[in-house]
Structure formats: C-alpha cells, structure tokens
Amino acid sequence: MSDRALAVVRAGALTTVQDQGRPGHAHLGVPRSGALDAPAAALANRLVANPAEAAVLETTLNGCALRPRSTITVAVTGAPCPVTMDGRPAAWGAPVRVPAGALLDVGPARAGLRSYVAVSGGVAVDPVLGSRSTDLLSGLGPAPLTDGAVLPLGCPGVLHMRVDAVPHSAPPAELVLRVTLGPRDDWFTASAVRTLTTRAYRVSSASNRIGLRTEGPSLERAVSGELPSEGMVLGAVQVPPDGSPVVFLADHPTTGGYPVIAVVRGTDLPAAAQAVPGTPVRFVAVRRR
Q1: Half-sphere exposure of 288 (CA within 13 A, CB side)
Q2: What DSSP state is assigned to residue 242?
Q3: What is the C-alpha to C-alpha distance for residues 229 and 257, in angstroms, rounded to an integer?
Q4: Mean pLDDT calculated for residue range 175-196
Q5: d(Cα 139, Cα 74) in Å, to the nearest integer?
Q6: How far, in Å, CA of 214 to CA of 179, rounded?
Q7: Which backbone phi and psi does 8 adopt, to 5 degrees?
Q8: Which of 56, 92, 159, 255 sits a CA distance of 20 to 30 A from 26?
Q9: Is the model's pLDDT at 186 over the cut of 90?
Q10: Other beta carbons within 10 Å of 20
C-alpha cells in the first residue's frame, strides 16, 4: 500500500468517514448522509487546503488515535477536545504537521459530541454513488473505523495559510430549532401543535446520526388512522406512536409512515449534531415562506 495512508490505532466510540454526502438518490431509497456538522467539516478541510468535497473523519464522544505513514497536515474542529502528538499538546482548530509514524490522539469532547479530523489530501476510500460517506442506515460507504484499519489518503494541496484562531460556534447549552409547521400538522390536535412550539424538550440518549430523539410532553394525534409511507426530508420532525418528536438527521430514511408535524430549518441542524443528551430543546414556529 502507498505511504499516503493513515493507520487507526484507536477507533473510538464511533468514528466514520464523511463528506458532503450523496444527495439526489432519495428516489432509490438512499439517504443523503454526510457530515452532521457540515460547517465544522468544511472548516477543517479549509485549514488543511483540501477542497470542500474532501472526506474527513467524524468522531463521536471520545475521539480517535491515528498514525500516518507519511508526513501529513491535520486539523481538528467541531466539538472542542484535547489534541496531542506523541503525548505532547497540539493545536485544536489549526493546521498541525504530523510526521510519519507519530501518534496523533484526538481526545474526548470537552463540550458537544462530534469532532472532525481533516487530513491533507483527504481520506481517499472508494466512493459509492459519488460519496465516501458512511451511511449507518443503509450500510453504504466504508464501515465505521475499527482498531488496526488503514485508510488511504489523497494527494495534498498547497497549504498557503497561517491561522491563529478560527471562528466556531460553541455547542449549544439550549438547542433552539426553528420549524415550519406541516405537512401533517393537521394530524395533531391544536393543543399538540401548541405544546410542540411552547413547551421544553430534552435531547434523548437514544439519538444518533439517523435522528435526534427527544424526551418531553407527548403530542396527541387528531387522526388515528395509518398514514401511507411518504417521502421524508432532512430536518423532518416525525412523531412516532409514543408522541415524542424525532428530528431526522443525515442518515434518515427516505420514506416514513409516521406523520411529520414540522420541518427544522437546515441552518439549525449543525447545532443539533453537537447537542449532548439532556440538552434542553425548544421548537420555535416560523412562517411558511
């Protein structure tokens, strides 16, 4: 194998390869997937002179440890976390030169959930339907990282920037999600719609890349019948039989049979990617455009 490769020493709780996803295949039942905190992934790529579409690593909770076979430049963004190289502190949110054979350790998130590791040249696993993203729902793309795995890397670009600090949003102390009601808000009582947009919820520990699950007041249905399966979009707030809203994230199914009471604005979803279990959630209704 080429020396343009990265060995996984510690895979962490869940580390996956992600890029901008594979949009345009919902009619085939293929979710979009891609980095949940897209702005953080894009920033990491910019810091190492990668194109925006380059694949990065998305870690969950406790990071990962990597050993390159050649000298590389890396940048870690997203959830703030300690970064070390051969046990010595290294920069978070800035380009870091990692010599061949050195151990880069991306530690546990100090706040938030997901950190992003961009490597000069990008992670060059084989694309599937035009994307290198791991899709946990369909199984498309590379499997989540395991200890001992080796990832091929692409050719690096020319690093032309020096960065002292980068802009980043702190993980939310309260997750505020702006929603447009519908298309199936009429399947719920007026009281349920009022409850969704005025009462507080919490992020459930059952959340994952497929959906952010919530705990809080149950939403009462006005229509008790079955809804034929229909298309689901990113940010859809689906309400299963237990009445607890679920916000669909990047690996969401493309169809579903539970009613969607509202849809979250796309610009609010990156914050959802960093909301830890127990984070308060508020749904704020905005007018239809």
Answers
A1: 4
A2: T
A3: 4
A4: 97
A5: 27
A6: 15
A7: -90, 110
A8: 56
A9: yes
A10: 21
